[in-house]
Amino acid sequence: MANILAVGAHPDDIELGAGGTVASLIKKGDSVTICDLTNGEPTPYGSPEVRAKETMESNAILKVERRINLGLQNRWMKDSDEARVKLAEVYREIRPDVILAPYHLDAHPDHVAASSLAQSARFIAKYTKTDMKGEPFYPPRIFFYLCIHLKKMIEPTLIFDISETIEQKLEAVKVYRSQFYSGDKPRGDEIINRLRAQAAYFGYLAGVGFGEPFVKLEEIGVRSFDHLIP
């Protein structure tokens, strides 16, 4: 059983970029913890209370049992020393085999900062002779999911088969009504259609029904070809 930690800048980021993967991993028996760096507020139609309720609904859909919020500042998040320590302490506690983190190229400054922070915290989590809580630990693998505002095609390192969990992913996104279904021009249905089309495209590339793309900055080693999709 693998131990996975999914890191996102805001509640809904992981659902948008890796929700199908998270649901699939949990269904297979892996342990998945989500760490939101901020509460995502303020936004035009949301509030901390509303976002917390929506996040709980999403957790129930994806079957996520533990979700942490670090309380960093939405809109102005920085890869600061303080933030690095907070996230590194999560790494040292959870001790994940794999980290899922936001891709580093994006128009949203919080997403860029979150990607940088996920990597910086990974490095300092192994420090000795420090006041950080927990024992030193260096998470061995980090994969970056695509939840970006840039209209740009990113070439993935791998594509995760989410054919069995695409509907869970989309239902989890839908519960963030304050973000996608509120206001004069709600865009929820458009976003759901785009997510389905995107997942179908990447699924086609992998030879499956639906897929989610991931990027790894380091090379991937294998010991067997048994689980590769034809």
Give the topology, please.
Layout: E1 3-8, H1 13-27, E2 31-36, H2 48-62, E3 66-69, H3 81-94, E4 98-102, H4 109-124, E5 141-145, E6 158-161, H5 166-174, H6 177-180, H7 188-206, E7 211-215
Parallel strand pairs: 1-2, 1-4, 2-3, 4-5
Antiparallel strand pairs: 5-7, 6-7
What does the model show?
The protein is of the alpha/beta class and 230 residues long. The protein has a single domain, classed as 3-Layer(aba) Sandwich (Rossmann fold). The chain contains 7 helices and 7 strands; from the N terminus they run E-H-E-H-E-H-E-H-E-E-H-H-H-E. It has a 7-stranded mixed beta sheet, sandwiched between helices. Helix 4 links the parallel strand 4 and strand 5.
